[in-house]
Amino acid sequence: MPRPTTPLLSQAGIRASALEIIDREGLDGLSMRKLAAALGVSAPALYFHYPTKEHLLDDVASEIMEKVDVSAFGHGWREGLLTWARSYRAALAEHPNIVPFLARGPGQRDASLRRADAIHGGLVAAGWPPREATMIGASTKYLVLGAAMGSFSRGFVDDVQVYLDRYPSLGDAHRLREHADTVDRDSFEFALTMFLDGLAARLSKP
Amino acid sequence: MPRPTTPLLSQAGIRASALEIIDREGLDGLSMRKLAAALGVSAPALYFHYPTKEHLLDDVASEIMEKVDVSAFGHGWREGLLTWARSYRAALAEHPNIVPFLARGPGQRDASLRRADAIHGGLVAAGWPPREATMIGASTKYLVLGAAMGSFSRGFVDDVQVYLDRYPSLGDAHRLREHADTVDRDSFEFALTMFLDGLAARLSKP
DNA sequence: CATGCTAACTTAACACCGTTAGTTGAACCA
DNA sequence: TGGTTCAACTAACGGTGTTAAGTTAGCATG
Q: CA B9 to CA B45: how far, in whole Å?
């Protein structure tokens, strides 16, 4: 059945279906054949729209990153960083199964360059020396990526016993699992606050 | 040639060879057949010593984590955290290609539990409330994992132009690449210092 | 000392993977 | 109307992790 009257596939549709599978079955759960089946099409048809699986995943990742907000540096560097970091983390927390892909390399996600410029510009405008502005951007990214990677919701419960002993609001393992998202967000917010406090002290002193 | 006089394989030997391949050719460069060939053996022979590739990689990761040092909390919480974080990061920086595997999930790396206890205990002994001690541990891990994941040496040069403009000691892209390790370490140390400064302020106040 | 069991390898094969080649016929432009 | 291009198809290639079945060395037991 060649060249249908109206095209069966589109890049956006492929991305959406791919992300659905990733969210539901994990990154390893996505294969080109399974994706094609979900779209009612044969696997090689996908290669007309994307040259490679890697490119497709790059695009999916870029789409997720579109939601990251770097626009708040007008309200001060602290607010700008907070908004950036929180929206960045939220975007990853919404699709945690994409994180292992992000860990594989930078890919073709060109939009990040624009963002890096916005962040750096905002920090420099607020009085940070350029070299430190760069490191602040990198550091914040570290926090976000690390939080996304080591999150409890993703199963990183190494320290589950420690949590059970010390996190007074949680009764047992079952409830910990239930509140994993909260624990994750609390720890991330804590890390971010401590980091920003350290920055503020450095900027105010010489 | 069945049941050789002296065994050809051992778990330690398999791990060592696997890590060698990962270091040299990346995580995707490791296949059971290639690993077997490097050991002068057929692929299914490996399954006598490891039930699955996943288990093997878990073991390799655990071995790397053995080098992490959590013993310095006797010299104060700041020194303890610094030593832990630096040795943790160093261990990952030595084998950056394992990081994408770490991002895939927690695995069977049971040694981390002991470490989590040591860290938490050290922090509590130094006067941190248990709940905050837990979050400090998580936050530090975020920094280390994020730094390992988003490192410049691993190709995350999104902001390469920004770096070129602002990092005065670097002349051009070639030299940036050359000094990627230094840039990584600088940013990590900066993040860690700011975080610890924020912590110190919090502990000294109320 | 013979017998049987287990250990540690072998080769063959399965199901799946990403991807390429070659084919088909509708849609579009001259 | 004719030719080209597009968007799908089926078939197939080389690779993957893993399982099954075969072979024999080493060891324990009668």
A: 8
Interface membership of B125 toward A (CB under 8 Å): no
pLDDT tens, position by position, A63-78:
999 999 999 999 999 9
> Which residues from B are below 8 Å from A139, CB to CB?
143, 187-188, 190-191, 194
Tens digits of residue pLDDT in A176-199: 566 677 878 899 999 999 999 999
Per residue in B121-179, pLDDT tens?
899 999 999 889 988 998 999 999 999 987 765 555 555 545 555 444 444 555 556 66
CA distance A82 to A182: 18
Q: Return the residue matching tokens 């550091």.
A: A139
| Integer Cα distance of A58 and A52 in angstroms | 10
Instruction: Return the sign of the alpha-carbon dihedral for residues B116, B120, B121, B126.
Output: positive
Whether B196 sits inside 8 A of A197 (CB atoms) is no
In total, the C-beta contacts within 8 angstroms joining chain A to chain B are 196
Contact between A149 and B105 using a beta-carbon 8 Å cutoff: no
d(CA B109, CA A194): 29
pTM, to two decimals: 0.90
